[in-house]
Design a protein that fits this description.
Length: 308
């Protein structure tokens, strides 16, 4: 099968097209013919060598989202059969390719109202947002949440999930993204280039930190005692957490089939829509361009890869 791989760590030029063996379908897995995948920031971080523990051997096929059709189901799998439209965040990389084998317990059916490209934008980013707000932030109806970088892949889903939960939502972004964020449900838009969120907001229950550094430290100022600071990028300062009386942690998303089923249901009801910045074909050059765009940290929603 055709795949885009890296054979060593480095820049986007390390992404290369290569013929790879078809993955074997385990007894608890399904083999998926990939129609679309996406680019996430973790992809270029692994490619650059910042997460070497995630790369067990070369050549390595990156990619952490898949949307496609089942071509084979393992002998222990009863829920899915050949021809089913499915999507997932596999437990391992491997979706910059034409086929991937995925554990059946973390797969969900694609809602009929979604294309493969739209479905491929959802799993990793939307489950990250869900786990940040629900599992770690304990966000509830009537509470207030600040979502940093609301126009990004995780941010656009987090806004919609927070509104579904009945929360009041503030979010930071550049002026060019204000209309988008308000259309997703943002109540308090903050132009980070002109405004200091820590001087405007106070008494918040949850902050979703996608930035780290000074932005993370200033986020403690807007939380009330008993609040939650949930980071996707770095461990928050424990001393500041104790001084402000908040819970602060960093986490990595874990694929969960029941959560993806729930997100699929929200998408089917029109309560969760993926924002796609750009779509690229699966090729060496196009993947390099997608990675370079992802590295700017100014992607609007998701970058999707179409597998012909």
């Amino acid at each position: 099968m055709k795949a885009i791989v890296i054979e060593k760590f480095g820049g986007a030029e390390q992404l290369k097209e290569k013929e790879m063996p078809m993955p074997a379908c385990g007894v608890n897995q399904v083999l998926i013919r990939i129609h679309a995948t996406s680019v996430n920031p973790v992809d270029f971080k692994v490619r650059q060598g910042h997460m070497k523990e995630a790369a067990d051997s070369f050549p390595l096929i990156l990619g952490g989202d898949v949307a496609g059709t089942v071509t084979e189901a393992g002998s222990n799998v009863a829920r899915f059969r050949a021809g089913d439209r499915v999507f997932a965040r596999p437990r391992y990389f491997g979706t910059y390719a034409e086929y991937v084998a995925v554990d059946a317990d973390i797969i969900a059916r694609i809602p009929e109202n979604l294309s493969f490209e739209e479905a491929a934008a959802i799993p990793l980013a939307a489950m990250t947002a869900w786990q940040a707000l629900v599992d770690h932030g304990r966000l509830a109806k009537g509470q207030k949440v600040l979502i940093h970088a609301g126009a990004g892949g995780v941010g656009t889903f987090a806004i919609q999930i927070a509104k579904y939960l009945g929360a009041e939502v503030a979010s930071t972004a550049s002026e060019s993204n204000e209309e988008l964020l308000r259309s997703l449900g943002v109540d308090h838009f903050i132009n980070y280039k002109k405004e200091d969120f820590s001087e405007i907001l106070s008494g918040y229950d949850v902050v979703l930190d996608t930035m780290g550094g000074d932005i993370q430290r200033d986020s403690f100022k807007v939380l009330k005692a008993g609040g939650h600071l949930v980071s996707l990028v770095e461990q928050p300062d424990e001393t500041m957490a104790k001084e402000t009386g908040v819970t602060a942690n960093v986490f990595m998303m874990e694929p969960k089939g029941d959560q993806l089923d729930q997100l699929a249901e929200l998408a089917a009801e029109g309560k969760l829509r993926p924002i796609i910045d750009e779509t690229y074909p699966l090729s060496e050059q196009e993947l390099r361009e997608a990675h370079e765009k992802s590295e700017t940290h100014h992607t609007r929603g998701k970058l999707v890869i179409r597998v012909e």
